[in-house]
Amino acid sequence: MNFVKMHGLGNDFVVMEDLGYTTEKYSSLAKNICLRRWSVGSDGLVVIQESDHADVFMLMFNPDGSEAEMCGNALRCVAKYMHGKSGKRNFTVETRAGLKKAEIIAKDCIRVDMGHPEWESQLIPVQGENRTVLGEVVEVEGNNLNFTAVSMGNPHCVIFVEDIKKIPWQRWGSLLERHPFFPKGVNVEFVQIIEANLVKVKVWERGAGATLACGSGACAVAVAGIYSEKISSPVEVNLPGGTLRVSWSPGEKVLMEGPAEEVFQGTYQL
Description:
Number of helices: 4
Shape: globular
Mean pLDDT: 93
Order of helices and strands: EEHEEEHEEEEEEEEHEEEHEEEE
Structural class: alpha+beta
Distance between the termini: 7 Å
Low-confidence stretches: 120-132
Helix content: 10-25%
């Protein structure tokens, strides 16, 4: 099996074209090929398939074998991969979360139209009822954490803190990922505001753990911050692997800009 290793700000992926496998077989492959030190190693497996509605269909599998509906960094990698094959600069990519648009705007920058954020898809069963979460509170290890739930096609829990260095964000992230508040699991972003247009973020991704960057997470952070008037658009989202630029106004689509890089090509023995 031929593959390409790519990354977006250190959020790395094994990218391959469709082998005609079932979802279950791709899930098993992801568990093996994403395993660091013992295999290729990555934060996810991206499978490029044909689409009847777009240039390509993107499947995304986490290292634990679970399938993700969306991945912003993987979208940029797919656009970069397709640009290398076709020379085109504009692409439509079908995902489990719908159609997304990507544009190569510079050698090291790709803009992705992430679509409209959603609030209503974040429903939490509380005493037998569902309620939309916007500025809710969740308890973790005796700490009441204020959070905003945002969907960018995949679920996010955004938590603003005074100083990321002073919280055990990885432990809290792992506990929140499968907290009863989030029956389908959730991606967790801890956010420290540096300036009105600059935030520092640490991410715990559902099915992957701590990663160097999360594109959809950066978008969720921008939406939550702008909506609550904590920050202003455009927002520079500083992640451990680098910075993404996110623009959004209420009622509009979210635009994300950032790099994608090919690291190497290889062959994996199935």
